[in-house]
């Protein structure tokens, strides 16, 4: 996991005027009121997913594509959904230029998941949700893991959800602040 963080050049994902700050451990604005996540939170979320090279992963909130690249380093196939077309297109160009071939992109509401490609071994949501979307849980494989920030519009708790026998188990990872998840099973 640390290898993946070291291999992905964060400076390729930030706007030119913020280049001097690319390697600071904090989120940075990427335009359209959105942010590239803080590296510590990217590391914590990724670690919690326990990715294997055969895994198929769904990411909700492509944003700059930085977290997408980390997932693509560790998993087999990454499916990433972004609601803002401009951000998705910029991420597609960036990740293509970096040589990734195991990422599929979709523009739309990721709170409903990507049913055609389900089930997923791991799902990562990178925007803050009011609650865990049922439709994402239903697209998790039997031993799948979901990481999602859940809480209020401005502050959330990063939560890991996985199935233990027949039960869903939730574990809180840390307090965090993500931009809002907007959609059918998110905020309006
Ligand atoms: N992982 C990204 C974080 C981007 S911020 C990075 O490191 O750059 C979260 C992103 O989620 C924003 O780009 C926002 O537009 C997007 N988003 C919010 N609600 C969404 C939804 N319902 N479906 C897909 N993307 C969504």
From TrEMBL:
Give UniProt keywords alphabetically: Cytoplasm, Methyltransferase, S-adenosyl-L-methionine, Transferase
**Listed CDD domains:** AdoMet_MTases
Which InterPro entries does this one have? Answer: PCMT (IPR000682), SAM-dependent_MTases_sf (IPR029063)
Which Gene Ontology BP terms does the record give? methylation; protein repair
Which Gene3D superfamilies does this chain map to? Vaccinia Virus protein VP39
Membrane-crossing residues?
Answer: none
- Which Gene Ontology cellular-component terms appear in the entry? cytoplasm
Where's the active site on this chain? 37
Short name of one Pfam family: PCMT
Family to which the UniProt record says this protein belongs: Belongs to the methyltransferase superfamily. L-isoaspartyl/D-aspartyl protein methyltransferase family.
Name of the protein described by the UniProt record? Protein-L-isoaspartate O-methyltransferase
Look up and give the organism this protein is from. Answer: Candidatus Bipolaricaulis anaerobius
What gene name is given for the protein in this entry? pcm
């Amino acid at each position: 996991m640390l290898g993946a963080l070291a291999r992905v050049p964060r400076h390729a994902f930030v706007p030119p005027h913020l280049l001097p700050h690319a390697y600071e451990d904090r989120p940075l604005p990427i335009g359209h009121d959105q942010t590239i996540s803080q590296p510590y939170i990217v590391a914590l979320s990724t670690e919690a997913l326990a990715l294997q090279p055969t895994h198929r992963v769904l990411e909700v909130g492509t944003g700059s594509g930085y977290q997408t690249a980390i997932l693509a380093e560790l998993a087999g196939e990454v499916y990433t959904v972004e609601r803002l077309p401009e951000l998705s297109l910029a991420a597609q160009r960036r990740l293509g230029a970096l040589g990734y071939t195991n990422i599929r992109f979709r523009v739309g509401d990721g709170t409903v998941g990507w049913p055609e490609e389900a089930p997923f071994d791991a799902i990562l949501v990178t925007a803050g949700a009011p609650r865990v979307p049922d439709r994402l849980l239903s697209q998790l494989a039997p031993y799948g893991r979901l990481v999602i920030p859940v809480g209020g519009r401005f502050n959330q708790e990063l939560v890991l959800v996985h199935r233990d026998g027949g039960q869903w188990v939730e574990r809180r990872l840390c307090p965090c602040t993500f931009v809002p998840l907007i959609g059918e099973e998110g905020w309006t």
